[in-house]
Amino acid sequence: MSREITIIALKYNPSDETSKPRFAEYKLPETAGMTLYIALTKIKTTIDHDLSSDFVCRAGICGACGMIINGKPRLACKTLTSEFKDGKITLLPLPTFPLIKDLSVDTGSWMKNMNIRVNSWIVSTQKTDISKFEKKIEPKVAEDIFELDRCMECGLCVASCSTAIMKENFVGAVGLNRVVRFSIDPHDERNDADFYELIGDDDGIFGCMSLLACEDHCPKNLPLQTKIAYMRRKMVMV
Amino acid sequence: MLNADIIESITGKTTKKHKSRIPAKLDLLQSITGLILALFIVFHIIFESSILLGKETMYKLTMIFELEFIIEGGSPIFISILAFVIFIILIFHAFLAMRKFPNSYREYLRFRTHTKLMNHSDTNLWFIQISSGFMLFFLASIHLYIMMTQPQNIGPFASSDRIYSDVMWPMYLMLLVSVVLHAGVGIYRLIMKWGIFDGENPRKNRVKTKKIIQIVVVFYLIIGIFSLISYMKIGYDHRANYGEKYIPQMELKNEN
Ligand code: HEM
Ligand code: SF4
Ligand code: FES
Predict the structure, then answer these.
(1) Ramachandran category for residue A121: left, alpha or beta (phi over 0 → left; psi -120 to 50 → alpha)
(2) Residue A27's domain spans which residues?
(3) Could you give phi then psi for residue A25, rounded to 5 degrees?
(4) Which residues of B touch A167 (CB under 8 A)?
(5) Which of A92, A211, A225 is nearest residue B123 as measured by Cβ atoms?
(6) Is residue A130 a part of any domain in this protein?
(7) I want to staple A199 with a disulfide (CB 3.0 to 4.6 A). Which of A204, B125, B175, B188 is the partner?
(8) Who contacts B136 (Cβ-Cβ below 8 Å, separation ≥6)?
(9) Is residue A129 part of a domain?
(10) How far apart are CA A70 and CA A90, in angstroms?
């Protein structure tokens, strides 16, 4: 027995002068195991060719499909329509990122700027000799680094953060997570004072108000609360 | 004006060529002042609720705060001094915490629609925190000013007269609710912000911390409200003798 579901999506094209922001409503039959990715594809192919939304991997890996689903920032490809008992699902583009069109936002440029801003790379005076193995590090440290490296830059932590919503320049959990990742990496020669130069202000670590929506919405379950607290303790000691 | 300040304001770097350490200090001070105020409230409400154990207990406690055990008869000046110190800390805390308020229509609109849509519990708690903090600007100031200027009027009858006959009870009721909520949420935030009880399993400990704080908040609201009712009742019975001070049992016995 399949039911009919209703999907309401915000439609707006900021680069088209005639476009007015509005909500569009689509009704379609639900199929077994339907994700929002499947539902949106169905709408785009059968009801409204003009609706825009982003997908790449369809498997919760790439982070392209983040949107606000009934109020919560989530990945569309990992959200089953069957979760919503009344069959009504409202979709909004992620706030805090430039809107491209409808549900599609430009997280890419934002993330690029963030990575440049927090110098999200290994800083070392060592010459790399690619004919030799990298310097060995403790397995536990490697594990910790890999854990934080699982971030796929989906931007849900930023879109769920009230600080980021209010203060455009706030670096966001994703940026703070990058800094922690390099600060625990023994290959990186920077010290705490160097990291303070990157995030030691009210747009950085001290802007964070510990609302923990990042921690609660990260689809990768990264330990953002503990890592941000760790960085805060370090930064006040500089 | 200091050249160092001019250099920093224009370049964003101190004369030592690095970022200012002030934001770090302000963040820490915001937490420390909040912690001091919260600890103060934890004890204050317990002491204030001594009225639930009877007039005599409350009277004796008041005398301890007037340092009767050191100075013959005690002196209310120590209460004035305590109130003044708390007032200074409160002003400083409010000054620091104010930086976090939404400060334009756009910021407020974005914040409020976002929180309502998302309905995320800790973000909602923060809304309670800024709302109660804003109320405390006024309520805590009224209360502290009275304590600074009329410290002699603390006692089973004097306090009850103030609450009932001087119609201060609506103010005290709002003060109680806002300060208990604000301090409760504030302590929870402090623990999360600095990762104080992260332990082996931070996620489990977060749930536990929240539960414990919820219980404590409810406990404080209950004893606070019951003691307010108690002061109201004493004040009502005492309305004909408004202004008369409480005479402790010991002195009454001596007189007989
Ligand atoms: C007796 C009164 C008060 C107590 C016990 C108290 C306690 C606290 C505590 C423990 C915190 C957490 C500190 C932190 O996150 O670093 C806090 C934060 C805060 N307080 Fe208070 N406070 C009091 C009065 C006030 C007043 C009068 C205001 C008015 C402006 C205020 C506004 C705030 C705000 C807006 C925050 C949140 C700051 C943030 O999220 O970073 N508080 N308070
Ligand atoms: S930290 Fe989590 S929510 Fe934030 S961008 Fe990375 S994966 Fe997404
Ligand atoms: S499409 Fe890649 S995470 Fe959803």
Answers:
(1) beta
(2) 4-104
(3) -115, 130
(4) 107
(5) A211
(6) no
(7) A204
(8) B90, B94, B175, B178, B179, B182
(9) no
(10) 5
Residues A216, B125 contacting (CB under 8 angstroms): no
Mind listing the pLDDT tens digit of every residue in chain B (256 residues)? 778 888 888 888 888 888 999 999 999 999 999 999 999 999 999 999 999 999 999 999 998 888 888 888 778 899 999 999 999 999 999 999 999 999 999 999 999 999 999 999 999 999 999 999 999 999 999 999 999 999 999 999 999 999 999 999 999 999 999 999 999 999 999 999 999 999 999 999 999 999 999 999 999 999 999 999 999 999 999 999 998 999 887 666 666 5
Residue written as token pair 């609450």: B163
Out of A162, A193, A201, name the one closest to residue B126 (CB).
A162
CATH class of B19-255: mainly alpha
Ligand 2 near A111 CB (within 6 A) = no
